[in-house]
Write a structure and sequence with these properties.
Layout lengths: L5 E5 L2 E6 L11 H4 L22 E6 L3 E6 L5 H13 L5 E6 L7 E4 L2 E2 L3 E2 L22 E4 L12 E4 L20 E7 L1 H8 L6 H4 L7 E2 L2 E2 L1 E8 L3 E4 L5 E7 L3 E5 L7 E5 L6 E5 L6 E3 L1 E4 L3 E6 L2 E3 L3 E3 L3 E6 L6 E5 L9 E4 L2 E9 L3 E6 L1 E9 L2 E17 L3 E10 L2 E4 L21 E7 L10 E2 L2 E3 L2 E2 L2 E4 L11 E4 L1 E8 L5 E7 L6 E3 L2 E5 L1
Parallel strand pairs: 18-21, 19-22, 20-23, 21-24, 22-25, 24-26, 25-27, 26-28, 27-29, 28-30, 29-31, 30-31, 31-32, 31-33, 32-34, 32-35, 33-36, 34-37, 34-38, 36-39, 37-40, 38-40, 39-43
Antiparallel strand pairs: 1-2, 3-4, 3-14, 4-11, 5-6, 5-14, 6-10, 7-8, 9-10, 9-11, 12-13, 14-17, 15-16, 16-19, 17-18, 40-41, 42-43
Length: about 525
C-alpha cells in the first residue's frame, strides 16, 4: 500500500507533513560498544533542559547515530505510543523518507515507509490524540509527530526540526491551527541530522512516488531504533519471567534486539560509582546475551542471571556477580587508574569461559569451573567448591589463596611464561616474574570418587603452602605436579590414606615424585 502525500494548510503556506520513503541495509549501533559521551547539539545546546531520568532513544542511521530525549511529562500519550513502536521493532527496516530543502522550512522525516515507497501497515497502532497544546515549540532539534490534515491522525511517523518552524506550533483548537506535537529533542547527533538534510534527493525514476526522499551513496538512509534505559525497568523475558533492570549513579543503558530476549545490554556514561543490577523474584533465573560497558562501573549484580554471551567492560569494575556462565564466552575487564583497585567476581557454574582482566582480581568464587582460562595481573583468592577442569589460571604476579574440590587437566601459574605447557622445567627462564602462590589446597569433594588432583600443574618461584588430597598416582608417564624455587610446605594425602608432609623444599630436599605428583625444584 502506498499512501499519497497529505498537504496541510499552515497559516497561508502549504507544507507537507506526511510523505513517503525507502531503504537498503541494517547497520548495528557499533559506536555504543566503544562507549558514548553525550555532546551538545551542533550549533547550539538542546533547546530544552535535559534530564538524566527521561527516556532516551538511539536512532542508528547509515550516516551516523542520533540520540533523542523524550518528554513524557509533557506528551505522555505520544511518548508511550512512540516507545511502543521502538520496543516492538516496528522501525526496523524503515528509511528516512523525506527531507525538505526550503530555506526557512527544513525537517528530516521517517517512521512510515520501506524502500520502494512501500507503506508499512503491519504493526501499525491506532492514531493518537494530538498533544500539541503542551507548550513545547517546534524549535531546531526538537522531535515531533507527523500527521495528515486530521489533527488526531498521528501514528508512527515523526520528524526532526532542522530549522525552527513556528508555523507548526499549536495556535488554536481549529484544525488549521492545532499544530504538530513536539514530544522530544535531539541531545546528540544533530550534526548527523544536518548531514541527512543536506543529502541529495532520489531521482524521480527511482523514487517510486517519493518526491523528497534522500539517498547516501547508492543507499536509502536506513535507520534502526533502540531505547536507552536510564533507571529502573521491569520487562518480561521470553519465558514470561519479570526481570528488573536498574542503574544507580550516573549513566544510561540500552536493551538491544528483541526486548524480551535481552540479546545485548549496553551501558553508557557510567562511572566508578554506578551500579547495574538485574534481578528476578525468588530463585527464578533469567538469561542475557552480551553486556557492553563503555566506561567503568562499581558493580554488575545479576546473581539470578545466566550469561549466554560476552561481557566487555572498557573501564574498571568493582564487582561482577552472575549465575551460570557457559558456552565458550569471554569476559574482558579493563584497567583502573587506581593502582589499588581490584575486582571481585562471583559465579555459579562456569564452562568454557575465558576471563581476561587488566585489573588485579581480589577474589573469584564459583561452584565449578569446567574449561577456559583466567588471566590477570594478580589474583587474591580463587575458591571453587567443585571441580576445576581443563582450565588455565595465569597470573603475571602473585596468587593468594586457591581452594578447590578437585583439579584435573589444569594449570595454576604465577609469574610463569605464558607459552609454557605442562609442568615447567626447573629453570629461571620459565619464571620471568618473581611471583608467589601463598596457598593452594585441593580438598576433595564429598560423594565424588578420587583422584582429585589429576594431570595438573602448579608453578611459581615461591609456593608457601600446598595441600593435595588423593592425587592420581599413575598419569601414564606424563609428569604433573609442582614446580618452584622454594616450597615452604607441601602436604599430600595419598591414595592409600597416609599423609606425607614436607617443609622447606628447595633448600634441603631435591626434586622428587610423591604418589605420582612430581615436585620440581631449581
Amino acid at each position: 500500500m502506498v499512501v499519497e502525500q497529505k498537504y496541510t494548510r499552515l497559516y497561508g503556506k502549504y507544507r507537507t507533513i506526511d510523505a513517503k520513503g525507502q531503504r537498503v541495509k541494517y547497520f548495528a549501533f557499533l559506536s555504543l560498544m566503544a562507549g558514548f559521551v553525550f555532546s551538545a547539539v551542533a550549533l547550539g545546546e538542546p533547546p530544552y533542559t535535559s534530564s538524566q531520568t527521561t527516556p532516551k532513544v538511539a536512532i542508528e542511521t547509515i550516516v551516523g547515530d542520533i540520540i533523542i530525549e523524550l518528554f513524557p511529562n509533557k506528551a505522555p500519550i505520544t511518548c508511550n505510543n512512540f516507545l511502543q513502536y521502538v520496543n516492538s521493532g516496528f522501525y526496523d527496516e524503515l528509511i528516512i523518507h523525506r527531507i525538505t530543502k526550503d530555506t526557512t522550512f527544513k525537517i528530516v522525516q521517517g517512521g512510515g515507509y520501506k524502500p520502494g515507497g512501500v507503506y508499512k501497515s503491519e504493526g501499525l497502532r491506532p492514531p493518537i490524540i494530538n498533544e500539541s497544546y503542551n507548550g513545547l515549540k517546534n524549535l531546531r532539534a526538537t522531535v515531533a509527530m507527523a500527521r495528515t490534515t486530521d489533527p488526531n491522525s498521528a501514528t508512527s511517523q515523526f520528524y526532526i526540526n532542522v530549522t525552527t518552524n513556528p508555523f507548526l506550533d499549536y495556535h488554536d483548537p481549529n484544525s488549521d491551527g492545532f499544530g504538530y506535537c513536539v514530544f522530544g529533542q535531539v541531545i546528540s547527533g544533530m550534526d548527523i541530522v544536518d548531514q541527512i538534510q543536506q543529502l541529495p534527493i532520489l531521482p524521480p525514476q527511482y523514487a517510486n512516488g517519493l518526491t523528497e526522499c534522500p539517498y547516501s551513496g547508492s543507499n536509502y538512509v536506513y535507520f534502526h531504533m533502540q531505547q536507552i534505559r536510564t533507571r529502573k525497568t521491569v520487562v518480561n523475558d521470553s519465558n514470561g519471567v519479570p526481570v528488573t533492570f536498574n542503574l544507580t549513579g550516573d549513566g544510561l543503558y540500552e536493551i538491544a534486539g528483541d526486548i524480551n530476549n535481552f540479546s545485548q545490554i549496553t551501558l553508557l556514561n557510567t562511572t566508578e560509582k554506578s551500579v547495574f543490577t538485574i534481578s528476578t523474584k525468588g530463585k527464578t533465573y533469567t538469561s542475557v546475551g552480551d553486556i557492553v560497558v563503555g566506561g567503568s562501573l562499581k558493580a554488575i549484580i545479576a546473581k539470578t542471571t545466566n550469561l549466554r554471551g560476552n561481557i566487555i567492560v572498557n573501564g574498571s569494575l568493582g564487582t561482577l556477580a552472575l549465575g551460570d556462565v557457559a558456552d565458550a564466552h569471554t569476559i574482558t575487564i579493563g584497567s583502573s587508574p587506581n593502582p589499588k583497585a581490584a575486582v571481585t567476581i562471583v559465579f555459579d557454574q562456569v564452562a568454557d569461559l575465558t576471563l581476561d582482566s587488566q585489573m588485579p582480581i581480589k577474589s573469584i568464587t564459583a561452584t565449578e569451573w569446567l574449561g577456559g582460562a583466567i588471566n590477570a595481573p594478580s589474583i587474591g583468592t580463587l575458591t571453587v567448591k567443585g571441580w576445576i577442569d581443563s582450565c588455565k589460571i595465569l597470573s603475571n604476579g602473585n596468587i593468594g589463596t586457591v581452594t578447590a574440590g578437585a583439579m584435573t587437566d589444569s594449570n595454576c601459574f604465577a609469574g610463569v611464561a605464558e607459552d609454557i605447557n605442562g609442568l615447567p622445567v626447573a629453570e629461571a627462564a620459565s619464571f620471568p616474574e618473581m611471583a608467589t602462590i601463598k596457598s593452594i589446597a585441593i580438598k576433595g569433594i564429598k560423594g565424588e570418587s578420587a583422584p582429585f588432583f589429576v594431570n595438573s600443574n602448579i608453578a611459581a618461584v615461591n609456593i608457601l603452602n600446598a595441600s593435595i588430597v588423593y592425587p592420581q598416582s599413575d598419569n601414564g608417564g606424563v609428569p604433573f605436579g609442582l614446580s618452584a624455587d622454594n616450597i615452604k610446605k607441601l602436604t599430600i594425602k595419598k591414595t592409600d590414606g597416609t599423609t606425607k608432609s614436607l617443609k622447606n623444599l628447595g633448600k634441603s630436599i631435591d626434586s622428587q615424585t610423591i604418589d605420582g605428583v612430581e615436585v620440581r625444584l631449581y
